[in-house]
Design a protein that fits this description.
The chain is mostly beta strands. The protein has three helices and nine strands, in the order αββββββββαβα. It has an eight-stranded antiparallel beta barrel with strand order 1-2-3-4-5-6-7-8. The chain is globular and about 40 Å long. The two termini are 26 Å apart.
């Protein structure tokens, strides 16, 4: 792991960052199913400056999801360092789990992002579209590598040609979360 201090985006336009982001690649996590596909996040800005978070993934045709909230670590800072809080398990949300969400790169058009956290244990490459070309993917991987990430751990996320609509898929009521904790 790198000891290099991470550089985060400054003066992130939060309103422009809102909306749907597709996970193009990520480090495997115990909080996501190993065989999930069409993974994406939806961010909605609240009037108090917090952000509603909806993470979705599909496994065996069933939609798994978890909802949470994000907020700036230091509201007075211009750095894009946020905390995200989820309550688990999704089917009985009682235990708060908080993690760092640092925007390490955003392109000028807010179409591509690299998101990580200070321990470098988690990394996400995000796009507004479910598919990106190899040249752009490699560019984003290089941005993560420059931040000290071991990019050999990245796992590409599979996406359908026509990503499913949230309401069209049966929900798995959080069973994916239990399976992911058990390594499935």
């Amino acid at each position: 792991m790198s000891n290099k201090e991470m550089e985060v985006v400054r003066n992130l336009d939060t309103e422009r960052y809102m909306g749907r982001w597709y996970e193009i690649a990520s480090f495997p996590s115990r909080f996501q199913p190993k065989n999930g596909k069409d993974t994406r996040a939806n961010y909605t800005l609240n009037s108090d400056g917090t952000v509603d978070v909806l993470n979705e993934t599909w496994t065996d045709g069933k939609r798994g999801f978890i909802e949470g909230a994000a907020y700036k670590i230091d509201p007075k800072s211009d750095e894009a360092k946020l905390k995200v809080k989820f309550y688990v398990p999704p089917f009985l949300p009682i235990i708060p789990v908080t993690g760092d969400y640092w925007v390490l790169y955003i392109d000028p058009d807010y179409q591509y992002a690299v998101v990580g956290q200070p321990s470098r244990s988690y990394l996400w490459i995000l796009s507004r579209k479910a598919q990106i070309d190899e040249e752009m993917y490699n560019e984003l991987v290089e941005k993560a590598k420059a931040q000290g990430y071991d990019v050999t751990k990245l796992h590409r996320t599979s996406h359908s040609d026509a990503p499913p609509a949230s309401d069209d898929a049966p929900k798995d009521k959080g069973i994916w979360w239990i399976k992911s904790l058990l390594g499935r």
